[in-house]
Amino acid sequence: MADIGKDIEKAQKLLETGNVVAIPTETVYGLAANALNPEAVIKIFKIKQRPAFDPLIIHTNDIQKIHDYVVNIPDKAYRLAEAFWPGPLTILLEKKTIIPDIVTSGLNRVAVRIPKHPLSLALLSKLSFPLAAPSANPFGYISPTTALHVNDQLGSSIPYILDGGPCEVGIESTIVGFEGDDPFVYRLGGMSIEQIQNTIGPVTAKAHSTSNPSAPGMLKSHYAPKKPVIIGNIDTLIQQYNGKNFAILSFNKTFDRELAAEQIDLSEKGSLEEAAKNLFTALRTLDNAPVDYILTDFVPDEDLGKAINDRLKRAAAK
Ligand code: TXA
Ligand code: MG
Question: With a threshold of 0.90, does the pTM exceed it?
Answer without folding.
Answer: yes
